[in-house]
Structure formats: C-alpha cells, structure tokens
Amino acid sequence: MLKDGPLNTLLIRLGILVLRLIAPSSIIYTLFRLSHLLNFASYDTYKNNNTFGPPYVLLPDIYLALEAAFYLLFALPRSYILNRAAPAPSPLKTAQERREVLERTWDATPEPRRYLEGYFCGLSVKVLRSEDVRDWLRWRLWGVFSKRKEAGHGDDGGDDGGGDVVVDEDEVNDYLSYTEEVLGHRFREGRSGRSFMAVTHEPVVFVHRPLLWYVLFIGSADTLACVMLWMYGFRFYRPSRWTFFKSFPLRPVVLLSSNSAPSETFTYWMLPHTSKDPKHQPVMFVHGVGVGLHFYLPFLRALLPHCRAHGIGIICLEVNQVCSRITNALPAPLQIVAEINQILEYHGWQHRRPVLLTHSYGSVIASHLLYDIGSREKFGPLIFADPVCFSFHPPDVAFNFLRRKPKSASEWQLWYFASMDPDVGRCMTRRFRWQESSLWRQGVEGRGKKYREAGRVTVLLSGKDIITDVETTGAYLTRSRGKDGGSDGKWYRQSMAERMDGKWKERKWTGKEGLEVVYLPGLNHAEIFEEERERALLVEIVKTYSLPA
C-alpha cells in the first residue's frame, strides 16, 4: 500500500486521472482523424500534402484507435455481462441453522446498533421500521432480496436471488423479536423508505481500464513474476492450452508449459515437495486481490532457502478473477473446493496435511475449504495474513471496499486498482455470498485441540488496515471464554472497556498455542509482505508450522 501523505495522494490521483482520460481522449481523437479520412472533398489535398506523414507517424493513431475500439466494442458490451443477475445462494436449510447463524452474528458484535446501522448506510435504528429489518433478515438468512414499491424504490421483478426459497414469516418475526432484544429497541411498524446494503443484488460499479493498463502494467508484472518463479524452481500448471484465450492479457506461459493441471479453473505454480519425512508439511498459498503473485515475490524468495534445505514444497494457487485480469467468473464454492481437492490428490498431498497460508481475499478460499468436512481434514496449520473472512458478517468490509469515498493515498489506491476493477467488482458482488465466505471463531479455535500441532492457527492483523475493523476482529478472536462475558456470555452486554480490551495486542507469537493473533502496529493492509521485519516474522511462522517438532 502507498504511504499516506499529501504528495502520494496527489500523485495517485494524477495517475488515476491520466488512466481515466485515455478512453475518452482516444475516442475524440479517433473521430477527429476519421473525419479527415471521410472528407472526400478535400481528400486529394490531404494526400498531396502528406497529412498523415510517414508510416511511423501513424503509430499513435493506431494505438488510440485500438483504445477507442477496446472501450466501445468490448468494455461497454461487457458491462452488461458483468451485471447479470447473481446466481442463487445456498440458503440455510433449517430453522436451527438460521437461528445459530443469527446468534453467532450478534454474539460476534460488540456494538449491535452500529452494526445494523452500517447495513442501512448510517441510518439510525430509531428511524428504521420493522419491515426494513424483516427484509434484512430475509436476505441474511434465506438469501431472498426484493426491492419493494412501497419502499420508494420501484419494483425489480420481485425476488432477486432467492429463487424458489420459501420464507417462514413466523420465523422471521421470531428473529425480529430477538434482534429487538439485542438492540434494546422496539421498531415501529411499516417501512422507512430506505434500503439496506446488499451488494450481491446491486449494479456492479466499476471504472474502465485502458488497453495500455492491461498490456503494459498487468502483462509486464505477470511476465516478470513468471520469469522469477521459474528461476526460483517453480513449475507452472495450467488446465489446458485453450485457457490461453480465456484470460487477458494473454499469458505465453500457458502455451509454453507442458504441465497439465487437474483443475478446470485454477492455474498454479508448484515447488515440488521432495522431503521423505512424514512430519514435513508442504505449503499451499492463496493470494489476495492485486496483480497476482508479482507482489509476493520478495516473500517467496525469503522462504525459498528453508524450502530447499528441507525439501518443503509450495503450491501458489492463482485466483485470476482477483488479479486485475479479464477472465471468466469465479465458480461456486463447491466447485472451488472440489478443484483444490483434485490438485492436492494429483500431487499426493491429501495425506500430507499442508500448511494453508492465505492473504486477504485468499481467506475466503480458506473458508470454503474449512466448511467442507472432507477438505478441512486434508489441511494442517492455518495462517491468515490480513484476513477478511472474519469480518464479512458486519458491513465494514463491504462498505470500505465498495462504497467508501476515498480520501487518503492508500484509499485511492484501493479504490481504483482493486474495488473499481471490473472483474474484481464482479467477484466481490455477483459471485460473493457472505454465509459461505465468513469464518467464525468456532471454525478455527478448536483445531488445536483436535489436531494438536497440525491444527495450530495464526492470524496476523495490521493495525492500520483500511479494509477490516482490526480492533473488533482481534478482540473477537481473543475473547475470554469465562462466565463474565466470554463465548457463553453476551459480548454486546459488556461495557466498552471490557468489549475492546486491547491486551491481545501485546501478546507475542509462540507457535505453540492453538489460536494465536499477532498484532502488527503501524502497518496497512498487505504491508506485511512489504516490510522486511514483519515479512521475516511471517516466514518464521511458515517455517515453524512446516517443520513440527
């Protein structure tokens, strides 16, 4: 992330402005030049005066014409494809499951009123009406979303994602009463006329990227990453050579590689696991939103001596849908899990219990794997760097990533280069389901007891993270299980001082506990991979987990 400051803010905004001006400038310039070509009355004059000059003078014309065509003939039509209706979610099947999720939601929330107000974009709970909250509950627990005429939003055709799901209104009323009890507030009947934030059913908002961005920046970064990983000893695996045409910028490595992957969706780089010691565990790494593995090269380079010395293998999974590329949509969670299992089995890692290391959006993939009973048994220790999976049930991540108006340099960087990317936007809206992507503390804290050393978990939180609410996430993951407000109590009933006890920030990582949370003060999102000291700590954690005593 860029360091916040006036100069960086000015530079990033100027850079964004230049990139955004390329498309309209190209269209205007191309139309102007075409008007000369089509001006038959004076064509001979232009030809005789050599208006267009020697061939090399036409290069800017050709480039700007390509930019104009790229926007008009590809980007504009594709915006309709990106905004296709979201696939129906997998609803919670029983009332018991829905009740459990709702109770977990409120128990993981220190400030319930602020939580609900966040979903309604800051609207006070005193203004909300009972039907507003009922709609929110139907969406949260059944996946049913409707825009109501009486809410002042018109009608979008009724149910927009719930499919044939049948909602038990008595159950909804029961959950409404429970919510009122938690908030200590009784809602008045009717509607407020305001809708809540349900990004899966709202238009995919994005900012067009010029052809120059894809070819020069993304293509170059990917090519450099491929060369460096090959030099590090990694091998590239691709589904089939036909996938060369399914992603842009085009990747020559797809044609050059002879290694076929069992997955239909994912490409990956692999450092073979050569250790014969059954206690030596390989590593699977899943990156976050960005430009792919290029950003993580310093980390992988720092980890390489350990891997070579002990024969530790690494699989770096590429999620191209969040790599600023033009590609197909991310498949459903069940298919993601199935394909990753196929990769593990293809390389004989299913019994190796590999260390699962994820960064940012990669924690969503980890959530899918841990929800699947068969998959969770195949993985050993877990490492979450800047995870978002523990923060999906509150509205903070959705608001910060998709709705916040940027002010600082890092926020502008996040906004343009991640949030407003067309394919990333689709992945975070149309292809996103909070229930299937959220990971609760209960999903990780018991692994240490069940699997002992193979079940250890480390969560690394950056103190100045601009995406997640680190204070709440850290306090939630480290809450006491005592009778005076632990997991058996109600977090939101405690005083603010008790809720947000900051002692967890002072704890040092030992590598011996079941669940450890490491606080990294002064770091922004993703800077753990940029700062040498914190990167060295992450490398040490991977070393410890891959070589259990």
Q: Care to give the gist of this entry?
A:
InterPro entries: AB_hydrolase_fold. With 549 residues, this protein is an alpha/beta fold.
Q: Please state the structural category.
A: alpha/beta
| Overall structural domain count | 2
User: What is the typical, i.e. mean, pLDDT?
Assistant: 88
Strand order of the largest sheet: 3-1-4-6-5-8-9-10-11
Transmembrane segments: 12-32, 52-74, 211-233
Keywords: Membrane, Transmembrane, Transmembrane helix
Protein name: AB hydrolase-1 domain-containing protein
Report what the structure shows.
The protein has a 9-stranded mixed sheet, with helices on both faces. It has a two-stranded antiparallel sheet with strand order 2-7. The chain has helices at 6-37, 43-48, 58-82, 95-107, 112-119, 130-142, 169-183, 211-232, 252-256, 297-310, 333-346, 362-371, 373-376, 396-403, 409-419, 422-428, 434-437, 442-445, 447-451, 470-477, 496-499, 532-546, and strands at 235-238, 247-248, 259-260, 267-271, 283-286, 314-318, 326-327, 355-359, 382-385, 457-462, 515-520. It is 45% helix and 8% strand. The protein is of the alpha/beta class and 549 residues long. It contains 22 helices and 11 strands. The model is unreliable at 148-160 and 482-488 (pLDDT under 50). Helix 1 crosses helix 15 and helix 10 runs parallel beside helix 22. This is AB hydrolase-1 domain-containing protein. It comes from Cyphellophora attinorum. Keywords: Membrane, Transmembrane, Transmembrane helix. The chain crosses the membrane at residues 12-32, 52-74, 211-233.
List the helices and strands and how they pair.
Elements: H1 6-37, H2 43-48, H3 58-82, H4 95-107, H5 112-119, H6 130-142, H7 169-183, H8 211-232, E1 235-238, E2 247-248, H9 252-256, E3 259-260, E4 267-271, E5 283-286, H10 297-310, E6 314-318, E7 326-327, H11 333-346, E8 355-359, H12 362-371, H13 373-376, E9 382-385, H14 396-403, H15 409-419, H16 422-428, H17 434-437, H18 442-445, H19 447-451, E10 457-462, H20 470-477, H21 496-499, E11 515-520, H22 532-546
Parallel strand pairs: 1-3, 5-6, 5-8, 8-9, 9-10, 10-11
Antiparallel strand pairs: 1-4, 2-7, 4-6
Helix pairs in contact: 1-3, 1-15, 4-7, 6-7, 10-22
